[in-house]
Amino acid sequence: MSEDFSENVIDFYRKHAERFEEERNCELFEKSWLDKFLASVPEGGHVLDLGCGFGKPIAEYLIGQGYRVTGIDAVPAMIEKCREFFPDEEWVVGDMREIALEKKFDGILAWDSFFHLNHTDQANMFPTFKEHAKVGAPLLFTAGPDERGRSVNPLWGDPLFHATFSKEAYVAFLKKYGFECEDQRFNDEECGGRAVYLAKRV
Asked: Containing H/E element for 139?
């Protein structure tokens, strides 16, 4: 039953874009992982941010550290905010499942976006990651806080879908598509209980 909600995620964020901006935690609790990620990105490198939201705090931090950002989000209102806040970067309205940018990036991240895809769509993202990553590029993404499979959690009065594979499955996907898992943590308390994966294109 919960799988039925996976196609509603974009509509959820379109409906609640303003509230998401108001309530998004911008204290950059993600910093330790972002710094690990950036350690493998060359100075001034180009990062692809999948599901960038309105650009704060993650893209804001990357830009502040001197990196270029291309952000993708399926919610036009969020991309409009990104263009307002950071007009020198590239912002694209699009579904991460459908991107074909015909360029490779120095790093790819999908923080709190990838885990909204159902299992089939998550599996299909790994060739997309490969297609857009330079050799040596890091990949950073979050999954569910445990190996719970699928769940639908109520937020702001509407259902919000999440899915996760086991660690073994993610590591296998990464290896199949040319990435090596470099760091992983379940239930990271500093990141609100998220599971975090950091890999590198080899």
From this structure: strand 138-143
